[in-house]
Amino acid sequence: MNQNLYFLVYVSYSARELNDAAMEQLLHVARHYNKSNDISGLLLHYNDRFIQVLEGPKESVQKLYAKIQKDKRHHSPTVVFEGPIQSRIFKNWSMGYEKVNEKNDLISEDITLLQQLFDGDHSSHPIVRIMSRFYEKNINIDG
Ligand SMILES: Cc1cc2nc3c(=O)[nH]c(=O)nc-3n(C[C@H](O)[C@H](O)[C@H](O)COP(=O)(O)O)c2cc1C
């Protein structure tokens, strides 16, 4: 097991002036940095929202997220999940990127799940689903 592997997922709002050319430039620099720092992941752009997953050594992920938080090309970054992991999911991608729309890559259920994350609705998270089923079953007992 890799003791030090970590992941972080955040959502943010893209800046209006971030066009396709500027995005290409951002990704070019990001992929170079990520390769040099053993970071893998995926960035999705859906309407004016970003969701990005970063994977890598804990210090590298946290150092990169600190930089990303200060970036004026997006705003209001909010972490939705983070923690230690045993292995990577996106190991071949220094930073995958896709501009998502309903027609291409994601099934409608996944768009709905993304929207829930963007809206700060935690009910779709698997662990919250388990716990909310427990809550519904035991709702009459004092917590
Ligand atoms: C949505 C978004 C995702 C980004 N993802 C990465 C990334 O994966 N890797 C990276 O090196 N920079 C990424 N950046 C750029 C960083 O925010 C920052 O510009 C870069 O790390 C250089 O930071 P520095 O000038 O403080 O060294 C991203 C920026 C935005 C807006």
What's a concise summary of this model?
The chain is of the alpha+beta class and 143 residues long. The chain has helices spanning 20-36, 58-69, 108-118, 126-137, and strands spanning 5-14, 40-46, 49-57, 74-84, 96-100.
Q: Any overview of this molecule?
A:
- The protein has 143 residues and is of the alpha+beta class.
- It folds into two domains: 5-101, 2-Layer Sandwich (Alpha-Beta Plaits); 106-143, no CATH class.
- The protein has four helices and five strands; from the N terminus they run βαββαββαα.
- It has a five-stranded mixed sheet with strand order 4-1-3-2-5, sandwiched between helices.
- A hairpin with a 2-residue loop joins strand 2 (40-46) and strand 3.
- The longest helix is centred in the N-terminal third of the chain and has 17 residues, at 20-36.
- The relative contact order is 0.20.
- The mean pLDDT is 92.
- The structure holds flavin mononucleotide (FMN).
- Flavin mononucleotide is lined by residues 26, 30, 33-34, 43, 50, 52, 64, 67-68, 71, 73-74, 95.
